[in-house]
Design goal:
Shape: globular
Strand content: 25-35%
Structural class: alpha/beta
Distance between the termini: 30 Å
Number of domains: 1
Helix content: 10-25%
Order of helices and strands: EEEHEEEEHHE
Radius of gyration: 15 Å
Largest sheet: 4 strands, mixed
Number of strands: 8
Number of helices: 3
Strand order of the largest sheet: 1-6-5-4
């Protein structure tokens, strides 16, 4: 990588003190749908995730590979925490990220790659359960 580029080690988690959209009120991740817009999913984070856990998950986050684009800080990265896929978004070109439980469509080979990174049967089981409910694959 070129000097001055953003690396996984230099990414910082940004809780977003004024952002409450993805703050859940329960100790489990959830997805709710916006009133009046039943197709707009909002991932709600568990209320018991420590900043250190979020930072560690962000450190292992990866972009969806694109052979046609040169490497650069990604606007969206994906990671897992306790078997749940989280989408990490940046608003400052890859320096800081906030994350939330993912609901939507991802490439099937990318979902398989995320699953392959899990180390325990419990994580894989939680991953499979989350994906059945919240992830469509291409």
């Amino acid at each position: 990588m070129a000097t001055g580029s953003i690396t996984a080690l230099s990414r910082r988690y940004d809780k977003g003190e004024r952002r409450h959209k993805h703050n859940g009120s329960r100790p489990v991740p959830d997805v709710v749908f916006e009133r009046g817009h039943p197709r707009r999913a909002i991932g709600k984070c568990p209320n018991n995730v420590a900043v250190a856990q979020a930072q560690a998950a962000l450190g292992s986050a990866i972009p969806i590979p694109s052979p046609s684009l040169p490497p650069s800080p990604s606007e969206r990265l994906y990671t897992t925490h306790l078997g749940v896929i989280y989408e990490c978004r940046t608003s400052d070109r890859g320096v800081t990220y906030h994350a939330y439980p993912f609901h939507g469509t991802l490439p099937s080979d990318f979902v398989a790659a995320l699953r392959a990174r899990l180390t325990t049967a419990a994580e894989r089981s939680a991953f499979d359960s989350w994906n059945r409910q919240h992830v469509r694959t291409l």
